[in-house]
């Protein structure tokens, strides 16, 4: 039969009364004297795998890194409990038996006082350091009861391991493991673990690195004691006794200093204090890739020092997750002379030509261009803005793929004029370009040549969008950063067109192409150089990674050797070969929204009647321009080809048909100025007085000089002159110049005319022999 309930309750009466009294005391203490919070921990930034990348001193100047429960391995748990408090899991914070034994030893001992502090009592003392008196000891015991009510045993053990002193300003087992062994607690061997359990008893006399001989003796003594007690297997203890003691003070982890500072400062601004998890902030960086990127950048910049180049920055992004896996803000964070603490990832610089691929992708989506579309590459005056190519030369006409592959400036400005600066900058704003958003009202056609501000972070984000089928999402720097919904900046088809062109560039580290090595990664890449050679850029991507490189000087001074191709690109390929080596041969495939068509090889347009030579070209069905090519015009000419006829004056016999090139005025002027052979349409039959249908106002002469609405300051003492130049259509033989409606003189279309105007508003007019006219107005001052 079961025992009656009353006798059982009588037997448990006193234990229940003691337990109730203990809980009442603890709860009363909590109301009168709330538990003190743990002291502030060291801000720590961790890699994606949880390892410590960078650590800072706590606000009270301690190395106090918080250990998580996962850091407390069974070996560490056993060693601490066996040495400090073997009844830890059984007592309520106070061990009465140990208290009686300590009191007896202190009363009858040889003068050496001993305590009976449990792990919980030690935690209470470390939370509130006080002078060792009987009254404080009693308060410490009450605090221990209070801690046991509030925390689990594992949490109390965790607090103990976070606060235990290791000498100097080192506190906590995680700090000690990293600073003395260079690895986290859960990586320590049995010998190393036992070493760290005994140092807190005498942090000064057993300081690792200073008293290793004495520490070794104490470690071995405790290893034997723990082996005898059966805490660890005898074989493990024997192996641990043979392990040398190599503990020494090491510097705190210092990887990724720029990102670590960025994350910690953001946390401080958000919460007013470092309110990240006790373990720290977990970045997305991959430790091995971060270390490799820092090493390559540091060694590469050292080689550039004789060229007057002192800094570089590198950003590596995983395209699939958009997480940043390496973040190198400068070549050396500690370089004071080179301003190494400046974060080159976020520094706003001139992007040079790095925005051109995105412009061409936007233009393809608007139907303006395809890879084989021919663009003008001739000196052009865009309302006062006269861009030049990097090599100061022009090519006449080039395909888009050549313009992008050779980073030609003039064709890019022509395309931006077609797209519209506002349309283009709006797309950049959608891609997170903050400086462009602020500068938007002041930006013009020079934007595509670097006339705006951008950071390496923004540019890499833009190229990551190209690698992700044209979809943009912000880069992620921390593990808990939410994955934002992507924004489609350009179509998958136009992103592929640009990628295909950029991947055909000849790599600087291979003689012909990537096919010469089966294991080197295939890359689409683009370079950029800012005005004055102050910034060199090289950004590349494949299916796996997007990597951006900036090289220059944080002070802004230029260097003759500073170009994206020669200086930034070698580091880009070193990084790809190290990080993406043997990554597989996966490459982008043409999307469904892309197709082929035949186009005229001369213009890249849909072939017209007179386009015998045709080539295949990608295009976007329903989007790309379908206007037929008219690069040649059929003209009726006399047998000697000295005059041409319109249909109104075409004779019954005695004429023939000839094809003549239909150049734009700018291209025609370029060919004439450079002596390039080209067929010129004969003048129209002078006997014909009918108005011809080809007198299109859009074919009127374009005045190249002077610049419309410009102000010219001329030296009055040396009779400085003003130059008049124009570009006219192919069939123009003579133009007529006027100043303030007064005839100046007639001239050939390519001939420069000079005048000596007075001060004031000046109207310049140019008419061709077809009666088409253009006017501009300028302001002249003579000093």
Automatic annotation (TrEMBL):
<keyword id="KW-0812">Transmembrane</keyword>
<dbReference type="GO" id="GO:0004180">
    <property type="term" value="F:carboxypeptidase activity"/>
</dbReference>
<dbReference type="InterPro" id="IPR023346">
    <property type="entry name" value="Lysozyme-like_dom_sf"/>
</dbReference>
<comment type="pathway">
    <text>Cell wall biogenesis; peptidoglycan biosynthesis.</text>
</comment>
<dbReference type="Pfam" id="PF06832">
    <property type="entry name" value="BiPBP_C"/>
</dbReference>
<dbReference type="InterPro" id="IPR011815">
    <property type="entry name" value="PBP_1c"/>
</dbReference>
<keyword id="KW-0808">Transferase</keyword>
<feature type="domain" description="Penicillin-binding C-terminal">
    <location>
        <begin position="694"/>
        <end position="778"/>
    </location>
</feature>
<dbReference type="GO" id="GO:0008658">
    <property type="term" value="F:penicillin binding"/>
</dbReference>
<keyword id="KW-0511">Multifunctional enzyme</keyword>
<dbReference type="InterPro" id="IPR036950">
    <property type="entry name" value="PBP_transglycosylase"/>
</dbReference>
<protein>
    <recommendedName>
        <fullName>peptidoglycan glycosyltransferase</fullName>
        <ecNumber>2.4.99.28</ecNumber>
    </recommendedName>
</protein>
<dbReference type="GO" id="GO:0006508">
    <property type="term" value="P:proteolysis"/>
</dbReference>
<keyword id="KW-0328">Glycosyltransferase</keyword>
<dbReference type="InterPro" id="IPR012338">
    <property type="entry name" value="Beta-lactam/transpept-like"/>
</dbReference>
<feature type="transmembrane region" description="Helical">
    <location>
        <begin position="12"/>
        <end position="33"/>
    </location>
</feature>
<dbReference type="Pfam" id="PF00912">
    <property type="entry name" value="Transgly"/>
</dbReference>
<dbReference type="InterPro" id="IPR001264">
    <property type="entry name" value="Glyco_trans_51"/>
</dbReference>
<comment type="similarity">
    <text>In the N-terminal section; belongs to the glycosyltransferase 51 family.</text>
</comment>
<dbReference type="GO" id="GO:0008955">
    <property type="term" value="F:peptidoglycan glycosyltransferase activity"/>
</dbReference>
<keyword id="KW-1133">Transmembrane helix</keyword>
<dbReference type="InterPro" id="IPR001460">
    <property type="entry name" value="PCN-bd_Tpept"/>
</dbReference>
<feature type="domain" description="Penicillin-binding protein transpeptidase">
    <location>
        <begin position="313"/>
        <end position="552"/>
    </location>
</feature>
<keyword id="KW-0378">Hydrolase</keyword>
<keyword id="KW-0472">Membrane</keyword>
<dbReference type="Pfam" id="PF00905">
    <property type="entry name" value="Transpeptidase"/>
</dbReference>
<feature type="domain" description="Glycosyl transferase family 51">
    <location>
        <begin position="52"/>
        <end position="225"/>
    </location>
</feature>
<comment type="similarity">
    <text>In the C-terminal section; belongs to the transpeptidase family.</text>
</comment>
<dbReference type="GO" id="GO:0009252">
    <property type="term" value="P:peptidoglycan biosynthetic process"/>
</dbReference>
<keyword id="KW-0121">Carboxypeptidase</keyword>
<dbReference type="InterPro" id="IPR009647">
    <property type="entry name" value="PBP_C"/>
</dbReference>
<dbReference type="GO" id="GO:0030288">
    <property type="term" value="C:outer membrane-bounded periplasmic space"/>
</dbReference>
<dbReference type="InterPro" id="IPR050396">
    <property type="entry name" value="Glycosyltr_51/Transpeptidase"/>
</dbReference>
<keyword id="KW-0645">Protease</keyword>
